[in-house]
Amino acid sequence: MACVRERVCSKISTDMRHLVNNTHLVSPSESLILLRGEMDNMYKEKKLEEIVVINLSGHYLINLGYLTNCWALRICILSRNYITDIDALSYCPHLIKLDVHANHITDLPDEFFWSNMICLQILYLHDNIIGDLNSIKPLYYCPSLIVLTLFDTPVSLVPKYRHNLVNNIWTLKVLDNFVIADEEVIEDCLHSDQFKALSPHFLIHLPEPPQISTWQSELKHIEDLFSLVNNILTHRSPVLIIQRWVRGHMTRKKLRAFLNPRKHQRSQVAGELCEQGIHVLDDGNMWVEGSTEDDQCNAVGLQVDINKLQLELLEDRCEAKEITSGIFPCISHWRKSNTPHLKPKKSSIFQPRTFREPMFDPQSDDVRLL
């Protein structure tokens, strides 16, 4: 008796399902897509192959119908329907956002389908009948996925479900209602409560989609969502905080070098003098290599402002090994106007120059330069 009752109930359920399918559930026709679809420019004539936005939420759809002809589709909203298979969307490889939540989907397309969705960044799959962890593994091949929802599905109750998705989809920033924390992707990473995974700081309420979907409104909706996610990561991700401080330090260091070049000029001038045998000490003194008869270094107490020191003057008036000989005039008495090689506003102390070796004439007391 019980078996007969079960068969009768099963037959009635099947008949009712067929009756509902034949009377209520529909397939999206070309006229329906043109009516509910939008172009990227409202002044263009609507064409099926040029539709970029379609919103068929709550239209009792049982399949995708003529959506396979929408080659340029970017935003596809098919929520709250009776769709069980989305494989036909492989003909729409330019999708940016796909919303199929609250449907009857049990299995997802294969790896080839998701690997071709190179522009897909937002995918809503929550409130479906996806129950096997292996059925969501093809999502690992989606190259640009940022936001993914799978809550209110049987698979979301599987142990380590979130861990598997977070560590296999490297581009993912949001899973279900929480932004992904550093603690979830860095092994043995322990943080305080404000950086802890799944804390209220990482909770995100997905913005409600606009009731009238246009190209501009959907782009604004996506921009607001990404701005909210990035704002949370900016303040709650230790890795990003450290990187931001390092970049700021390097930028300030470069700006100081650009705005205050005097310190760097001083070190470069000292380096050039050192190559010629003249060494500048920290206290401002200078010493020259081999300036005495025993070829030892003789320190000379000269207080010289290196920022005003001109290598041309040094080359014209003296040589490296003659600084202690008394031949050259006092540096404080030099006059720029009397120096023939010093050209105002054109000379540069940073140009590489070579000191000329002195040539002594045994017949004369004069010193000539090669």
Write up this protein.
With 370 residues, the chain is an alpha/beta fold. Helices cover 29% and strands 10% of the residues. It is built from nine helices and 13 strands. The chain has helices spanning 2-23, 30-36, 111-115, 161-166, 182-185, 215-236, 238-259, 262-275, 311-317; strands spanning 37-38, 53-55, 75-77, 97-99, 122-124, 147-149, 174-175, 178-179, 278-280, 286-288, 298-300, 358-360, 367-369. Strands 1-2-3-4-5-6-7-8 form an eight-stranded mixed sheet. A three-stranded antiparallel sheet has the order 9-10-11. The protein is globular, with a radius of gyration of 39 Å. The model is unreliable at 297-302, 313-334 and 339-356 (pLDDT under 50).
Task: Please identify the oligomeric state.
Answer: single chain
Give me the Rg, rounded: 39 Å
* Low-pLDDT residue intervals, each spanning 5 or more residues: 297-302, 313-334, 339-356
Tell me the fraction of residues in β-strands, as a range. Answer: 5-15%
**Number of helical segments with 4 or more residues:** 9
Helix content: 25-40%
Terminal Cα separation, in Å?
A: 125 Å
Task: Give average pLDDT, whole number.
Answer: 76
Q: Strand order of the main beta sheet, please?
A: 1-2-3-4-5-6-7-8
Give me the secondary-structure category: alpha/beta
Q: Would you list the SSEs in sequence order as H and E?
A: HHEEEEHEEHEEHHHHEEEHEE
Overall strand count: 13
The description of the largest β-sheet is: 8 strands, mixed
What is the general shape? Answer: globular
